[in-house]
Amino acid sequence: MNKEEAKERIEKLRKLIEYHRTLYHVFDAPEIDDAAFDTLKNELEELERKFPDLITPDSPTQVVGGKPLDKFAKVKHIKPMLSFYDAFGEKEMEEWLERLENYLGKPLEKVADPNFPLFYCELKIDGLAIELVYENGILVQGSTRGDGLIGEDVTQNLRTVRAIPQKLEQLGKYPIPKHLVVRGEVFISKKELAAINRQQEKMGLKPYANARNLAAGSVRQLDPKVTASRKLDSFQYAIVTDVGQKTHEEEHKILASWGFKINPHNRPARNLEEVFRFHHLWEKKRESLEYEIDGIVAIVNDNKVFERAGVVGKGPRAAIAFKFSPRQATTIVEDVRVQVGRTGILTPVAILKPVEVGGVVVNRSTLHNFEEIKRLDLKIGDTVIITRSGDVIPKILQVIKELRTGREKEIKVPVACPVDGAPLKKEGLLIRCSNPRCGAKNKEAIIHFVSREAFDIKGLGEKIINRFLDEGLINDAADIFFLKKEDIAFLERFGEKSAFNIINEIQASKKNNFGSIFICLRNSSCWSRNC
């Protein structure tokens, strides 16, 4: 992508992100999944890092949250309530640390106090950020983040949350200051979300999209009784007031000693490898929690170094949100190919710019039929939202038409079978080759090709070949040699190990002495036992 193309893409991304951010932060009514929104933000951040002269002060990467609503009184924060930049993999985390160390001028371990662990790791809860103000140990004000500088006064609503102490008690060695400002998160459990959504559906109302949406909507109520009925919970994680705290880890201990509820799963980490292990552990265990998390937050533990690192754009340099693999993501449709299954049915397959979804790198998605392309109004070059959860095959959910440039290409329905050139016939939503032997002959040729008499690719039996044809992974024998592990891993009842074994067998088969077969690889008439 050249600079002009990047500038065009950046401008469209900014406009789209601002629209969805307003729906999310201001009206608590998101139209797209959080994970898809995160990938849009991540793409913008990457483009702005590549072309830093295109960064503008009003870019969503430089601005926090959304404007506070007029129905609430306004609260000016004593210090800006910032948000975090995101990382989606270990490489991005290493790049974050490299940028931080370049800014500091030395490796982190040379700057930070050696008596403290380098990092502190917190679970990133899907909730609403809040600020609490105490005078002489009594809660006097509670507010939302708003735009980072000015939030909404929701004191009466936050008084109804049992996890937020109305009066502090000194339970340890740390004295309670006369004036205290702390920050944390209000959230709601999965169980409570499900119960409220069942009630919403009974009343014919729209269910809440997610836990964060419900928590935010509950706090931003004009009637505190509604907030009280929602069984909200809260953790506090930061002290804004200077009470002599030296590390972020110590802040948590101080908060607990005053009666605040802190997350018991948060942990210090001595190095980046321990941060990775913490992330990996909770990505596996996240379903066991009573509340939703979408990643972890890694923070430089030494507060002096944290303050010295300062702020860049909307977030602190010395902290980052290390997100879990998203269940939805955005990517670009680079091509659409037509595969012919074993029964002669034509299946369009979208070839995608590789993106990680649900822990697997996805580079294709079956479109099922050409009516699905019409329904989505899909074109080659479109930016799309795809989903994958568990063993579900990647699926295109929607096209983001706001990111179109006018250079996208229409997807044309074939006029003849791409395998044997025979006329096509329409059967309901499906299109089939008119030659009744087309798909079967193609399948038989491929089965012979992988057999002991030919390339001897172990593990590729008839059932698996049928599956690959039906899913659009292969169209002929040559396609087998272009398969990647991630193409196979997402198929139901396969997984990483099976995919790894199959790819290894395919690679090993290339060492066989079958030069003559390679010469006629694309000539299906040669793929017989008499070849």
Summary keywords:
22% strand, single chain, 531 residues, 34% helix, D-amino Acid Aminotransferase, Chain A, domain 1, elongated, five-stranded antiparallel sheet, five-stranded mixed sheet, alpha+beta, OB fold (Dihydrolipoamide Acetyltransferase, E2P)
Number of helices: 18
Helix content: 25-40%
Query: What is the average of the pLDDT values?
Result: 86
The tally of structural domains comes to 4
- Which CATH architecture of the largest domain would you pick? 2-Layer Sandwich
Structural class: alpha+beta
What is the CATH C-level name of the largest domain?
A: Alpha Beta
- What's the arrangement of strands in the largest beta sheet? 2-13-10-3-9
What's the number of extended β-strand segments?
20
CATH superfamily annotation of the largest domain: DNA ligase/mRNA capping enzyme
Portion in beta strands: 15-25%
Give the C-alpha Rg: 28 Å
Which consecutive residue ranges, at least 5 long each, have pLDDT under 50? 515-531
Amino-to-carboxy terminus distance:
46 Å
What does the largest sheet look like? 5 strands, mixed
What is the overall silhouette?
A: elongated
CATH topology group of the largest domain:
D-amino Acid Aminotransferase, Chain A, domain 1
Give your account of this protein's structure.
The protein has 18 helices and 20 strands. The chain has 531 residues and is α+β, with helices and mostly antiparallel strands. It folds into four domains: 54 residues, Orthogonal Bundle (Helix Hairpins), CATH 1.10.287; 253 residues, DNA ligase/mRNA capping enzyme (D-amino Acid Aminotransferase, Chain A, domain 1, 2-Layer Sandwich), CATH 3.30.470; 104 residues, OB fold (Dihydrolipoamide Acetyltransferase, E2P), CATH 2.40.50; 89 residues, 5' to 3' exonuclease, C-terminal subdomain (DNA polymerase, domain 1, Orthogonal Bundle), CATH 1.10.150.
